[in-house]
DNA sequence: GACCCATAGTGGTCCGACCACTCTGATGGT
DNA sequence: ACCATCAGAGTGGTCGGACCACTATGGGTC
């Protein structure tokens, strides 16, 4: 007799994670749907509540599940923002050459997103971009500048119409990541250059010129990339 | 008196995750280094072993830690491959319009990687690419074709010299992802077209022509992208 | 010197209890 | 009949302890 627990590969928790992931992949669990209780789930898979909790915690951190205290466990909407939140961890824990690689990726994606935005951005979205551009130029507080800088690019990424790309870029621009790289970059008086580059991006958006937008965004990220590369070299 | 446990935001497990992440970010824990035992860690943070285990499990799934039964808990190398393994989950759980967005991202990254590879690929790497190309054309078994197809692009991504980009592309080409999309795509007799496109990519690599390589790769992914878009439309 | 194995130490699993929070339905007043 | 209130059940969160499975180490044996 096969009781269905034949394989026995890996830890029981790992197997539980795969089982739940499979249930979602096969459509047996829909986005937003509520799961059985931890106790029931554990009983169904024949494992202890402790092990099941570890599996649930892992999937929670991955943005697949969401646990609401006192209410239950739910599948997230499974949208880009939910699943790619963990992408920020990569940016936060990367160092040295890996940071350059991440900036290289950001350059490629950011320039593409900016080009798409130039073709698709609405008047309202453009107004929002301008708001952050002027606010960024109206203060000398590095913290505030950084916040508006992030919002500036976030608005553009949103206007590109690819939520997944926007979510990845969000992770590649996470607060801690930017703070670590930009701290040194802007100490070299790069504020003026940054403002010029942002202005160029904005002009391209207003002109609805995708190629100009792509070039401006690539140059913008490329500047930081080259600076960081030089920092690591010698 | 402040006992240092003032904040109390979120669950204790979540706080433990942040603490360990911070330790790594601050360099107090180096890649490959061994951590204290679960029991010691729990005591240090003043939480139960159960909660600490959930934190460790979460970081294990994220590719930050690695638990070796009977030996101890270690920090991974923190390289792109380790941290981006979870990226495959996104591809596996995405559906509908989100799949198109992922293919759009793959088109951008794959074309960039292929262009870089055209400029940097070594003779050995090129030979490996050719091996998979011929093997792919020498069989009719869809499974085998898929395997060599994946390896073909994997070699090219590796030759591009950006490990992080290669790791992301790996996630975007995970077995289950490709299987889901390509099943339908190739049922329409797309084998011939796929072979032509792969040949074009290979020619560009041999000619060391980055722009031709970029175009060929973009067209290759774009074909699948358009097909999928059409599938979802009506 | 090489091999083997008892042993201590570590992560993996399970259990049971209790706490903190949420939701619901019965209660009582208007 | 309606609504505000609140006690109870149900759920996730935390804890402590026990035992199992595996690894690594060092001493003993040949």
- What is the CATH level 1 assignment of the largest domain in chain A? Mainly Alpha
Strand/helix succession of chain A: HHHEEHHHHHHHHH
Q: Largest sheet of chain A, described in full?
A: 2 strands, antiparallel
Tally of alpha and pi helices of chain A: 12
Question: Care to describe what's here?
Answer:
With 234 residues, the first copy, chain A, is mainly alpha-helical. Chain A folds into two domains: 12-78, Orthogonal Bundle (Arc Repressor Mutant, subunit A); 83-232, Four Helix Bundle (Hemerythrin (Met), subunit A) (Up-down Bundle). Chain A is 71% helix and 3% strand. The first copy, chain A, has twelve helices and two strands; from the N terminus they run H-H-H-E-E-H-H-H-H-H-H-H-H-H. In chain A, strands 1-2 form a two-stranded antiparallel sheet. In chain A, a hairpin with a 3-residue loop joins strand 1 (65-68) and strand 2. In chain A, helix 7 packs antiparallel against helix 11. Chain A is elongated. At the A-B interface, helix 1, helix 3, helix 5, helix 6 and helix 9 of A face helix 1, helix 3, helix 5, helix 6 and helix 9 of B.
């Amino acid at each position: 007799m096969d009781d269905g627990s034949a394989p026995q590969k890996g830890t029981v928790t790992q197997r539980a994670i795969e089982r739940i992931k499979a249930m979602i992949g096969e459509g047996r669990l829909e986005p937003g749907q509520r799961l059985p209780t931890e106790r029931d789930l554990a009983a169904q898979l024949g494992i202890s509540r402790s092990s099941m909790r570890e599996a649930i915690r892992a999937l929670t951190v991955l943005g697949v599940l969401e646990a609401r205290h006192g209410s239950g466990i739910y599948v997230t909407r499974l949208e880009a923002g939910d699943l790619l939140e963990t992408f920020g961890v990569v940016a936060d824990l990367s160092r040295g050459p890996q940071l350059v690689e991440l900036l290289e990726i950001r350059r490629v994606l950011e320039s593409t997103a900016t080009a798409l935005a130039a073709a698709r951005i609405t008047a309202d979205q453009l107004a929002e971009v301008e708001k952050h551009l002027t606010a960024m130029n109206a203060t000398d507080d590095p913290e505030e500048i950084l916040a508006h800088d992030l919002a500036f690019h976030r608005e553009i990424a949103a206007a590109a119409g690819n939520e997944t790309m926007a979510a990845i870029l969000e992770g590649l621009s996470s607060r801690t990541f930017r703070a670590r790289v930009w701290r040194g970059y802007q100490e070299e008086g790069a504020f003026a250059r940054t403002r010029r580059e942002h202005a160029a991006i904005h002009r391209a958006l207003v002109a609805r010129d995708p190629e100009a937008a792509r070039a401006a965004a690539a140059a913008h990220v490329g500047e930081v990339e080259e600076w960081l590369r030089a920092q690591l070299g010698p």
